[in-house]
Amino acid sequence: MGKIHKGETHITIPDDTLVLICGSQNSGKTTFTKKHFSGKYTVITDEIFEEVIKHHATVLDNLESLARRTTDIFEERVTKASKENSITVVDAAPIDFEGRAEMLKVFKGLHTNIILIVLDVKYPTLVKRPKKQVDKKKKQFGITPISDQELLLNSLIILEQIKKDQFGYRVNHAYILSERDIEKCQITFA
Fold first, then answer.
1. Which residue, among 86, 91, 88, has the nearest Cα to 33 in the 3D structure?
2. Cα distance between the two ends of the chain
3. Are 1 and 104 in contact (CB under 8 A)?
4. Is the pTM of this model over 0.70?
């Protein structure tokens, strides 16, 4: 396992890096990705899921089959991007350690460096995020985003991982950004 950085607001991303953005739903992963990684190759999971719903769904699909198809396309795009770009950014790495470990097994050997950026947005802030975001997801995907109980669980999982420093499995650096750190964060490319 690599080094864990807490409270650092300046992150340098070297070439040949896979950047994983991790955080609970409504923590601002896509907004953070678009703000800091404009011009870099990004894989945005919500956009892939929307594409699957619009162009690949059949009447026989259920949420599980749609999620599986989304995962397949996601893996194809990250693999392709990693071969063609020196920096690849994934905007929704799994919150749980086991989920990230499984994902990274698929991407083993694609990049020399793996950097994990965790948006540690606490539960009270998550539930205050605009209701229109929830309505937009309902309209886009036809599904209800996760419940308040799941948001709380995700928030607690991230906190527990920070306490135990369970960010391993080939991660060179893990940056834990509090809500205040997210606002101040500056990213440069080496």
1. 91
2. 22
3. no
4. yes
